[in-house]
Amino acid sequence: METVYLNDKFVAADQAQVSVFDRGFLFGDSVYEVIPFYQGQGFRLDEHLARLEHSLRGIQISIARDWKAILTELVAKNGGGNLSVYLQISRGSSGQRSHAYDEQMQPTVFACCNPIRDIYDEGPDSIAGISAIVTADLRWHRCDIKATGLLPNILVMQQARQAGATEALMIRDGLLTEGASCNLFMVDKGVIYTPKRSSEILGGTTRELILELAAVNGIPTQEVDIDYDHLMNADEVWISSSTRAVVPVIKIDDQLIADGKKGPLWARMFELFTRYQRDLMQGGV
Ligand code: PDD
Question: What domain range includes position 213?
């Protein structure tokens, strides 16, 4: 039986219970993180925890825990290895439903693990190019907060699945923002482009790492506004997230991107990414 973490205790998943009045359940009044662990060690853990603090501050939940110790122990209790940790912190429960909340409320903390692929071991040939649709971004204007209220993301993802695609890329006021659960990149004449960091997108930890790796390796990048035509005429399109790393998008809205094959700059970034991942894991965090 899987072990989960709930309010300062490690318990079997089927023993973990949360109140029906929990504000995470009633209102989506909660934030979360998804953090990959390889060989039992957190990957870019400090960056994830910094973003968690940003999200908590953004919705005014105040809580202090040794997250690193808790999550590392949770991963160990679930056998170590390659797992992604889901950590959710809701504002808690006051035993009734009310929009207004008491600032002294005890937050509910929940964490569990899911298996994750180690793409370093699997290699670039194991990564298939995916297809995507472009659809309206109907989310709020604080997408920099990793909030659990993901209804717009879920609906566009389902729209993508119904169209036979894997991912939904969202567009607002004529500009691409990001995917339903990932950031967006495109390549044009050797330059990597990605939407500017703002409250319209999540500051992805994988996005940040891709920009860092490009800078260290002399690959030009630009954080800019991207419109539909620019995207559709790209040489390459990629998406990035903690659970998927960097994945090529080879078809959008039923049109092939360039020749519809995984691009050479993607292959280079995949190599840089997986080498970084392996070096970090071998050196410890
Ligand atoms: N999602 N944008 C959105 C809307 C996301 O939900 C995510 C991650 C990202 C990428 O962030 P990072 O590189 O730090 O994982 C961008 C996680 C994986 C999820 O919701 O499951």
Answer: 124-281
Same domain, 256 and 168: yes
- From 68, 77, 146, 262, active-site residue: 146
Asked if the model's pLDDT at residue 284 lies above 60, the reply is no
Give me the CATH number covering residue 62.
Answer: 3.30.470.10
Considering the entire predicted model, what is its pTM?
0.97
What's the confidence (pLDDT) of residue 213?
98
Structural domains in the chain (count) = 2
Q: Is 243 in the pocket of ligand 1 (CB under 6 A)?
A: yes
Contacts of 192 (CB under 8 A, 6+ apart): 185, 186, 210, 211, 214, 219, 220, 221, 222, 265, 269
- In the listed set 78, 93, 116, which residue is the last one of a domain according to the structure? 116
Could you report the per-residue pLDDT of 163-172, keeping only the tens digit for each?
Answer: 999 999 999 9
- 110 within 8 A of 16, measured Cβ to Cβ: yes
177 CB within 6 A, ligand 1: no
